Amino acid sequence: MKAIFYLPLILTLSGGAAGDEPYEKPMPHSSGEKILEFCEDTEDVISQLRCNYYVQGVADLIVQTPLACLPQGMNQSELIEVATTYLQSVGKTELANSSGAGLLLSLLQRAYRCPKKPGEKTDKELYLEAIAKAVAEQQAASDPAKPATGTGTGTANNDAESTDGEQ
Fold first, then answer.
1. Measured between alpha carbons, how far is 90 from 31 in angstroms, rounded to an integer?
2. What are the C-alpha distances in Å from 52 to residues 5, 18, 48, 103, 141?
3. How much helix, strand and coil, in percent to the nearest 5, is found in the chain?
4. Do the beta carbons of residue 79 and residue 59 sit within 8 Å?
5. Which residues partner with 30 through β-bridges?
6. Which of 24, 32, 115, 152 could make an S-S bridge to 95, C-beta 3.0–4.6 Å?
């Protein structure tokens, strides 16, 4: 019985109603422009709460995943100050057309990178390896008789050798 009572509320909040438009741009209440508006409005308690909860939600996501490493001891008011200053520096068009969470996540990832662990590859190294592997696979697929070269991994050559040895 309770499920039937809550179903319309759940559908309304989740956007599960039939005929919903696809999510192509941020909802008006969560755009960077709106979040900046909340954070700048120091007179309205509700706006301040919205700002606090929004910024804290992004920070919670960062801490839990870890997408960035916030400085130890950083408090909520410092985090909100950093977020507000950054949002003020973003162009009006980008603010209006971007998710506030996306903008804040991007800022915090750039500003508070996690230290690299010994032996851990950087994002750039992982990216270059992925490109080299994709190129090697593409070369191997386009001309199986000709081994791929220049990748540094040797996987295409090893594959060609193992199939030749089996015959």
1. 12
2. 32, 33, 6, 16, 53
3. 65, 0, 35
4. yes
5. none
6. 32
Phi/psi of residue 21, each to 5°? -80, 150
CA 143 to chain centre: 37
Q: Do 84 and 40 contact (CB within 8 A), yes or no?
A: yes
The residue with tokens 């509700």 is 46
Answer for the pair 156, 137: CB distance below 8 angstroms, yes or no.
yes
Dihedral through CA 3, CA 6, CA 8, CA 12, nearest 10?
-130
Q: What's the whole-model pTM score?
A: 0.53
Q: What is the mean pLDDT of each run of 10 residues along the chain (167 residues)?
A: 46 46 60 90 92 90 83 90 92 87 88 80 80 87 63 47 46
Contact 35, 87 (CB under 8 A): yes
Instruction: Measure the CA dihedral 138/139/145/147, to 10°.
Output: -120
Which of 109, 8, 120 has its CA nearest to residue 59?
Answer: 109
Q: Which of 32, 26, 25, 28 is nearest to 83 (CA)?
A: 32
CA distances 98 to 2, 25, 92, 154, Å, are 38, 7, 10, 42
Cβ-based neighbour number of residue 157 at 10 Å: 15
